[in-house]
Each structure stands twice: as C-alpha cells, then as structure tokens.
C-alpha cells in the first residue's frame, strides 16, 4: 500500500483536490493495478470561515480532512512559517510516498517546501501558470513550487512552454486538463437555478456578478473609491450582486467606505457564497467582473463573458479561446468594456483541450501507474 497526502488550505483549493480524492477512491474500489493508495487530506486552515472552507467540503462531498492545522491568518511570512511547522509534524508521522499541492496559495508553497526538505516527492497540480508579475504573491508561490516539484500536472499548453523555458524535465510534465472544471461538472447537477434566483431576487441575464479580493485592488483607499465609481456607473445599467471576500470587507471598513457601498441602489452586497450558489450565480449572470484566477476558467467553461480587472493573467487560454477580457483597472477603460459587453456578448471560440471532467481520473491513474508503482 502507498500513501499520498493532498493539501488544501484556501477556498480555491477544495475544488482542485475533490476530483483527485474521488478518483483515488474509485481506483481502490476497482483494485486498479493491484495498487491500493491511501489518500489523506490535510487542511492547513489558511481559510477558516464556514463559507470559505467547510461549505466547500460539504458541496464537493469531500470527507472531513484527516488533519486540520488551524493556522489562520497572519502576514505572509507568519502564515507560511506556521503552516510549515505544523505540516512537518504530519509528514514526519505519516511518512507519505508522495505529497500533492494544488494552485498557488501560501499553503501550496509552505507544504511544498516541507515536502522538498523531507525528501518526499512533490506533485504540483496546476503547474506552470505564469503571470510574469512578481508583485503578485501567487506568482512567487507558483514559480517556487514548480522549482521544487518533481511531478508537474498542467491545465493548459502555455504552462508547458513556461516550464520548459525554466528547465523542467519534460518527462515529468503531464497535460491532464483542469480539476477545477471536473468539480464544476460534478456540481452542476446539484444546481437549482430557480431557487437561487428567487431567493436573491434576481432574473437570468439581468444582473452582473462582481468579486474583488486582490491586494492590488482592495488594499488601498484610492482603488476602493475608484471601484465605488464603477459600481455606481454599472448599477444604473444592470443589477449587481457582489459576494464580498473577508479581506475586502475588512479593508472597506478600515477605510470607512463600507457604508457608502452598502447604500448604493441596485448593488446587492452578500457574504461569500457557497460553491453551488456561486456557480449558479455565475451561470445566470449577463457577465462577471472579477480579479480572481479561477473564475476566469469557470466563466470560460460556462461561456459567460468575464472582465478580469488585472493587467496580467496566468491563464492565457481563457483569452485565446474563451470569453475572458483582461482590463487594466482604470475607470474609463472599465466603463468602455462594460459598454462593449452590454452591446455584444462575446462567445467562447472552443473549449480548452481536456477540460472535460476527467482531469482527476488522469492524475490518479498516472500516479498509480507511473509514479507509485
Ligand atoms: C488567498 C490566496 C489567493 C486566493 C484567495 C481566495 C495567498 C497568497 N492568497 O488570498 O491566491 O485567490 O485566497 O480567497 O495564499 N480571512 C477571513 N476568513 C477566512 C479567510 C481569510 O476573515 O476564512 C481574512 C484574513 O483574516 C485576512 C484576509 O481575509 O485578513 C486574507 O486572507 P489570506 O488567506 O491571507 O489571503 P486571501 O486574500 O484570502
């Protein structure tokens, strides 16, 4: 029997690990390759609010994590260091044959470093994505995690080029598709459109979803004032639903601008939505405006126009084939783009290759056949 540990920590991690967990369970049930793989899940506790964490475990039918490290918030160094200290204890006790980390959050690099120092082979899911913007904490996490990972599982072809350019071993790069899309396909069956729209007083195609949480967009007053101006403009054209990230709420209150937002007519500020509700919210929207990474991919799959409020993206396939538009967050440029989309909704050219709901199965099979045989 072999043992694998997967790490979850922050909201976007749960949907990337759930399909891998399901795939290992299914391989074990079918006695695949005569190779039983015990799959443990460690939750670092980087995100801890119910809506940011356990609501996702429930919606994705993940088991309760085998370990919860409870590290919580802090500066980047504090958070990363706390995760490393706690995760090292788990690794020393469990002695896994392989550690899997996903995405680009602080939990990814922290646990990746522990694996590398303990000489445990490391697999990175969603490897090779690059924004080439080192002011983004996630970019540092991506580059460093890939450097110390032995096995690199990629979601799109740009990742292959990036990894090869950085000297990765071609034999250890596996193009498997996108586990986040596996989760979306899994959860789509559970969606009750009417219920969600009625409960939130929304009508299909008659509203816009906005999310904002990047430090560059929410950690300073000028930027929050600028977005207020955009919300005011947009709210005259469409209803807006804005599930507010805890970081953003905190900053709005700190800069004393929260009440101004709350009082805007046609703007519905709500707590972070659970996974199923958020998918429902996106798939019925006229368009989505966001600074998230994952939402660029989810809207591509759903064929819903997306304005990404950033100057770079690590997910270029969503622009080449999809409905994503990268928009420098400046008021006149955003307003111009809003009007473009209201006049004519862009459509996806074609689905990115291998975004078919089977990425988790491919990963589990490669691990069972090529890595841990
Ligand atoms: C993290 C990830 C980011 C990801 C995002 C998704 C890093 C560097 N960033 O950013 O890539 O897109 O998660 O949400 O890992 N907080 C709560 N409750 C929670 C979680 C956080 O109140 O459950 C508060 C914290 O106290 C902190 C702030 O939100 O003040 C930021 O949390 P943190 O995990 O540090 O980073 P995110 O901005 O969420």
Explain what you see.
- The protein is α/β, with parallel strands linked by helices and 373 residues long.
- The protein is 47% helix and 15% strand.
- It is built from 17 helices and 13 strands.
- It has helices spanning 11-29, 54-59, 76-94, 106-117, 137-148, 157-165, 179-188, 193-199, 215-218, 221-235, 246-254, 258-262, 275-283, 294-302, 317-320, 331-343, 359-371, and strands spanning 2-8, 37-43, 67-68, 98-102, 122-125, 151-154, 173-175, 207-211, 239-243, 267-270, 287-290, 306-308, 324-326.
- The strands form two sheets. Strands 3-2-1-4-5-6-7 form a seven-stranded parallel beta sheet, with helices on both faces.
- The longest helix has 19 residues, at 11-29.
- Residues 10-12, 46-49, 52, 73, 104-106, 137-138, 213, 245-247, 250 line the site of uridine-diphosphate-N-acetylglucosamine (UD1).
List the SSEs and their pairings.
Blueprint (H helix, E strand, L loop, with lengths): L1 E7 L2 H19 L7 E7 L10 H6 L7 E2 L7 H19 L3 E5 L3 H12 L4 E4 L11 H12 L2 E4 L2 H9 L7 E3 L3 H10 L4 H7 L7 E5 L3 H4 L2 H15 L3 E5 L2 H9 L3 H5 L4 E4 L4 H9 L3 E4 L3 H9 L3 E3 L8 H4 L3 E3 L4 H13 L15 H13 L2
Parallel strand pairs: 1-2, 1-4, 2-3, 4-5, 5-6, 6-7, 8-9, 8-11, 9-10, 11-12, 12-13
The structure holds uridine-diphosphate-N-acetylglucosamine.
